[in-house]
Amino acid sequence: MTNHMIDLKNTNVALIMGSNMAENHPIGMKWLTKGRLDPKRQTKIIHVDPRFTRTSAVADIYCPMRSGTDIAFLGGMIKYILDNELYHKDYVVNYTNAAFLIRDDFDFQDGLFSGYDAAKRSYDNTSWDYKYDEAGNIMQDPTLQDPRCVFQLMKKHYSRYDIDTVCSITGSPKKKYLEVLKLYCSTGAPDKTGCINYAMGITQHTVGSQNVKSFAVVQLLLGNIGRAGGGINALRGENNVQGATDMALLFQYLPGYIDSPTASDKYKDLISYIRTTTPGAAKLPFTNLAEFRAIAAAGIKYSGWRANTSKWIVSLLKGWYGDAATEANDFAYHYIPKRNDTKNYSHIALFEAMHKGEIDGLFINGSNPVVGGPSANKEQTALTKLKWMVSIDLWLNESAEFWSHTAWERAVDNEKVSRLTPKDINTEVFFLPAAAVYEKEGTAAQTGRWVQFRWKGADPVGESKADLWIYNELAKKIKALYKDSKRPEDEPITKLTWGYDGHDEEEPDILKVANELCGFNVATGRPVEGFAQLKDDGSTVCGNWVYCGATTWKDDKMIYKPQLRKKDDPSGLGLFPNWSWCWPVNRRIVYNRCSVQPDGVTPWPGDSDRLVWWDPTKPADAAKPDVLGTWAGWDVPDFIKTTGPDKPAFKDPFIMRPEGKGCLFGTRASFKDGPFPEHYEPWESPIAPIINKQAMNPATKVWEPDKQGKAEEYPIIATTYRVTEHWQTGALTRNLPWLAELMPNMFVELSEELARDKGIKNGSKVIVSTTRGDIEALACVTKRFKPFKVAGKEVHQIGMLWQFGFKGYATGDIANRLTPHIGDANTMCPEYKAFLCDIRRA
Amino acid sequence: MANMTNLYDSSKCTACRACQVACKNWNQLPASIKPFKGNYQTHEDTDGDTFTIVLMNEVDNAASGVDWNFAKFQCMHCLDAACVKACPKGAYTKTEWGATIHDPEKCIGCQYCTYACPFGVPKHRKREDKITKCTLCADRVTAGLAPACATTCAPGALKFGDRDQLIEEARDRVNYLQANGFPNATIYGINELGGLNKLYILTDSPDKFGLPVNPKTYGTINFWQNWVQPYFGWLIPVALGASAVSFITTRLMADKHQEHPVEGGHE
């Protein structure tokens, strides 16, 4: 989230899209409903979703939309904003790249951006860039009239997204769509803010990243980023998913969202790594760290805050390899594993590789791919190709027992689906019982980036152990195995620092992990107070730069700020600065420079909720009381404190971006599938493309072309989702009787119209089939699903829970046996949300 | 002491059913897992181990296509409660703050209360042959706590407090709702059955939520309370007499039947 849960109470209009917020984020939803009762905000809630859910039930407007057509829906909104001049003009001109000119060779034809290579299904993004003048400055037209400026190119791009075309793609009733446009776009007024709350309904598509990018365009045009009650709020599917992402859950990152290196020239040594990852450094003259430091101190043009990447990677290496990391040996950069440049390591790719027998062993930790993975029949088969597997969980879930007889039972005999028995399977499976959240201490980073410490409430049951204990023991055993090795290739293990044992060596000390993650000075051992103080000379350690500043030193001991629980809220905006800690540097709303006008002081006309401001009367640094002028405010400024009106960067609120502006146009490598979001049909779509000539996202990798379901055979759209009563794959909740009774069986939701066509009775058994397999479920015939009118024809959509499996009190077939192995062009996030199926009576 | 109760606001409820779980937790009730019948509601009614459920009704709506109406359902703790009148053993009492309390020690499992209740709330728990129902968390309330359901309600749809004050709040809220898209918004529980000690803010008429529009107790309930129960002792001799009369008449009838065989019996 750019904002945070409590900030939802400050919004005028909330657009919930691709999320069933009331069901899946009930506590976050509470803050939205608070805003409704506040006479100042009178929050209105819009829900856009393929089916009417418990969120729709409490929304002011519900607008149906066919699965997989978000960009068409939002593209129409962008056109509506531009045509009716509803955008926040001062904001757009000053804080976005609307005025920036784009290279003359950038082009868009028939759904393809310039630079497309059909054979490789990928783009050469060279032309997706700004135009620079001879002095190396980006050319701009603040009047927004130049035909090559982002604003005009955007206007041209979305000119095709007129309301009738959009509604023929999305299947939304025109009247409802117009109601949504009118209400949400009213937040373009400078005194209003609107927030967009989304979840997996947006990301789990072949165009998932571009779906989110469409939100960014809408929110930047309406001036809703960096302000109280605004923002793009990713409602994370699990409490600590944010933390997992911060800690490099995604294969392309090291902790703190810095590149994980590949085995290529670009990353061959530390200097190459710095050159590649520091924006604007590619052609600068440096051959070693000392030269780079001198250049960086003088300032790197169009680099932004990422100019500090060298400090983050060196402090990380220093944490991992301690004394073995010195400037002379590249801070042991050669110890960290390098990825194969040509390979993808996302979930789908790993299971494809496993299916081919390329992977020997697997640790599954708090995950249940036999239920939760896409194309679960295939993923279950992939597990049989492993030599060994370790499952770490609270229960023996479906993945831990993928080898059992029950695991291979299927409702329908289908020769395309493999059916095995335990005697066919040679994978050795280990199960380690894990402690529940309440049985261990540690932090969870929630969706608003708040890192909150949780104290242990009860002892773990039986032999179950905290994950930290398990990994601490594992690491110590591995290190012991290598302790006598003198081989250089073993140094990444022998030289690895590992000192997290507590007093008795039995239980690890979690605060020791926190200390390393948040950073300390090598000489003194005292915390580094913020990432601005990190160094690239080996004098600081920091395991994750975004967590730097979460620790401090007071009264001779370390204070770990995620443990703070003070309830003061001086601004009244719900920032609660002393409740836990939030990354980065306890900044509750990022890009908050945008909450004041370009002069840095005045709130937007009619709006009183400025978060930060320039104070010319106070010093930025107490040690230099003569130098006046600093950024201050209710929130921690998302700005360099000393950047005053005399500096050109004073009006550049997006400090992580090289150009300092919010990007309506995503330059170069920002996205693999284009600088503007363009609607493409899902991989499996019931209609031919309407708005362009591309059948699907042209930059997405197709793993299994033969598994693509065609509309002639599978005419019905399917989607998957969760309900409030069950948690993720249900391993936790289907084992709890009080929750099992609330949702006892797997069911499929379908409209009364489709039920009539197919002769399906409410509550009866049905079979749902795709090219990947078949499942049996109970029918939930409901008024809450309605057929869509798409491209002039009636199209049906059904929905099903992906939370059932064969273990626990509440059981049922696994919906993911139906879903495809295809993902987003940028993230490889699987397309769980839109695929084709057929349904019949069982 | 003033009547204390829950005010339920259907315009705020998201049907997360945390109230159902909180109720089971506080009262330590076992799960009653029943097969899915085609509705999220899963429990069609309260049962011996389920004191509260959330009714979930899909209703056609010309403007929005469909409404999904939620209403928490449990014992209404009627101020003039039929169960109190119907119970032959005096197992039901009213607390001074309005809760209807059932004493399992006195209960004989006859289920007269179930049939007397206009909402059919008291349910028979077979394994103990006792009736069970919502207690309005009397044990919590007397200890200064709000009921478990109201305590857990995240969207703030349940509020526990003084009935008269809650009625005032409900009136304000209904006025607001009527002016903001819910012209049929109404309060349920002020006058129904002479007043319920459960109050509802409904965004539409009660029938759209699965609640009876004009709940009625059976006319015979007062007969039970005013005649049958005070003169319960007479019932035995009267019943014995009736049996004697029945015995004689039945035998006479049987004799007559023997004299007149059934026609067509020979075929």
SSE diagram, text form:
The complex is a heterodimer of chains A (842) and B (267).
Chain A: E1 13-17, H1 21-24, H2 26-37, E2 44-49, H3 54-58, E3 61-64, H4 70-83, H5 89-95, E4 108-109, E5 112-113, E6 116-117, E7 122-123, H6 150-157, H7 163-170, H8 174-185, E8 194-198, H9 200-203, H10 208-221, E9 232-234, H11 241-246, E10 253-254, E11 258-259, H12 270-277, H13 289-298, H14 309-321, H15 347-355, E12 361-365, H16 369-372, H17 376-383, E13 388-393, E14 428-433, E15 442-445, E16 450-454, H18 467-481, H19 491-494, H20 510-518, E17 520-521, E18 540-541, E19 551-554, E20 557-560, E21 581-582, E22 612-619, E23 628-633, E24 716-721, H21 737-740, E25 747-751, H22 752-758, E26 765-770, E27 773-782, E28 788-790, E29 793-795, E30 797-801, E31 835-841
Parallel strand pairs in A: 1-2, 1-8, 2-3, 8-9, 12-13, 13-14, 24-30, 25-27
Antiparallel strand pairs in A: 4-5, 6-7, 10-11, 15-16, 16-21, 17-18, 19-20, 22-23, 24-31, 25-30, 26-27, 26-31, 28-29
Helix pairs in contact in A: 4-7, 4-10, 15-17
Chain B: E1 4-9, H1 18-27, E2 53-61, E3 65-73, H2 82-86, E4 92-94, E5 100-102, H3 112-116, E6 123-125, E7 130-132, H4 138-141, H5 148-152, E8 158-162, H6 163-179, E9 186-188, E10 199-202, H7 220-228, H8 235-259
Parallel strand pairs in B: 1-10
Antiparallel strand pairs in B: 1-8, 2-3, 4-5, 6-7, 9-10
Considering the chains and any ligands shown, give keywords for the structure.
heterodimer; A: 842 residues; alpha/beta; Dimethylsulfoxide Reductase, domain 2; Barwin-like endoglucanases; 6-stranded mixed barrel; 5-stranded parallel β-sheet; 31 strands; B: 267 residues; alpha+beta; Alpha-Beta Plaits; 4-stranded mixed β-sheet; two-stranded antiparallel sheet; 8 helices; globular; disordered C terminus
